[in-house]
Amino acid sequence: MCSKHNEQSLLETKAVRKPLVEGAGVVKTFLTMLFAHLGVCLLCINVLFDLFILGIPAYLISFFSMKYFRAYMTALINFTTPIVFNLPMNWSGTKVYMDKPELLAKAKEDNALMLANHGSRIDWMIGMFVSYLTKLGDYECKRKRVGFVCEGIIQYMPLIGWYRKLVCEDVFVMRSFKQDASTIKNNCNSFHDAKCKRMLFLSPEGVVCDFGERDKKYIAECRGFCEDLGYKPFEYVLTPRYKGLTCLVEQVKYGGMIVSVTMAFERDGKLLNQKLTSLDREIPDIYSLLVGLAGSPTNIYVDMKELHFTAEDDIKTIMMEDYARKDKVLADWHKVLQDKGPEGFKEGFSVVHHNVLEANLIQLLHMVMMVGLAWYMDRLASLFSFGMSLYLIIIFTHSLGWFMNGTSMESVPFESGIKAIVMFFFGSKHKERTVAVDSKKKK
User: Fold this and answer.
1) In angstroms, rounded to a whole number, what is the distance separating the alpha carbons of residues 174 and 339?
2) What Gene Ontology molecular function terms does this protein carry (predicted)?
3) Distance of CA 334 to the CA centre of its chain
């Protein structure tokens, strides 16, 4: 566990730059990052093809029937999903473990609202992975469309962000309840009207805290918020934002489950999303998974618990209680991992197997379709030139973000560079909390 000295060091000193590849020298880091950038580049090219060739033209269907439009887009999402997780998870050796796979299998039978902690930048990728599976441990389940509640800036991120906006129709929020309430309700109700069921993932914490000054301040504010409400300060999670949930319950108003999800990330026996104030904390992103090919894979552990509430209930108290539980789960896992090591830690979990061959075949099919279309249009040279240019842009934007922010922030491609520039000029206003107002509302 993190010592008091380490906590003070994090809160009082400047951010420490995180290495691109843990424990690797210059040459190994260079070669590993070349592969990781290639993986991101292939992801972008595949998504670009699915978005512009298979996705946007299908908007013509929406003029005649939203039901059939959503059905087509659901099929397209299922076609895209394997190429999203294939390289970052299959090729890099990442494994997912669950303590209650039967609960997720049940949740996939209908609409579901999944409330997850925000210990990584790849929650969306894990959501796509588990929604795609048709077997969880020993339990058969349905393949399910998945959506996410995302910060508004994500929809403007090239390719993946556009795909999530136009194909997946995710819920993009600006963190103003007055502004977001109608957005959330309209999105949920439009899916109900089209009779299109999905799992909707949300991280009530709202943000991932890095190691900058605003991040440290926000962590301190969340700890103070807990104390003001009579809770012991959370150490592994931030305090949840609860107002939007009064609207998000629209997702399950005709049936379905609300599930609390706690995720932990482990590499080489080390818990990555450990105490918020720990100098050893890491925030996994796409690159954290991709570098596992040449180094150690990142494994993911998932705890689930069903919740029951409606818009009329005291959601604030329900969420604070659940986050106190989440915090304890992560603290207990951290201790078990330290005491028993990774092998002992796996006891009680079921590994989630998936069809690696199927994912690789779909990845290959994407490449054949793209190359075949380029060959038919006599644009093979253009495809190669575009791919190389995109590869260099990905290297530049990620490197720029890493140098400016001291860490990789790639939840979607290009985010490290774009967010670094935005934060440099405009700051991190999304990490400010109205503590003066909220903390006065005692439990």
Assistant:
1) 42
2) acyltransferase activity
3) 21
